[in-house]
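Section 3.1: Structural characterization of target chains.
Under the original work plan, the team committed to producing a structural model for every single-chain target entering the pipeline before any wet-lab resources were allocated. The record below documents one such target. The sequence was received from the expression subgroup and is listed exactly as submitted; it comprises 227 residues.
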Amino acid sequence: MPLKVLPLIRLLLPALLPLALGAQTTWTGAVDNDWFNPANWSNGLPAPGNPADIPAGSPDLVLSADLNLDFRVENHGGLDVFLQGYRLDLPDSLLNFGTLNIREAGTARLFGTFLNEGLLLIHPCATFEAHDGSTYLEGPGGSVINGGILYVLGDSDLSMDSGAGIQLSDLAEHPKPTARCRDTLFLPLLQPGNFQALTLDDVDAGSDAPYCYLTGRELSQSFFGCE
């Protein structure tokens, strides 16, 4: 798909991203950083007909199930999205002038229009997908740092202002998972014909994956490892 340059991206915004003249709710963070706490918003939780405005602050949008953000979101602060293995759908307009972090395993799916004049950070394990009919506009000062997975699918429209771009993380720079094992003593001593079960937890001494997360561990009579 060809990459198009739109140096006059701001002139297109009125047609692409009409601003709602009705109600909206503004992030105050009066209580904590929880997106889902109504007390952190000036007019209750964001919803269709009640779009979200984040002038400053750092709300945490932590998913506990698949979520459809079917309303406009404008971010000038530091919005952290924690996918936690779930799916976040973005069918409306998302305007990012601050920092937007997409964290943890899961998928954020763009179906609407995303204007990025700030910083989009796709963290390890996270996936960001631009789907058919979606529009991604990167304006002056906008940038993407992709340490996870970034897809542009079907007829989605990826447009960038001159000077903006996408920085891809080199996976080779990230450490591989480390298997750590320990000796295990069984008492009483095994006798001929007796059997003793040995589990992964018996020999695992804190295996970890600094870059992402462990997807599996393997144990045999001669081998212990993880990936």
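The mean pLDDT is 79.
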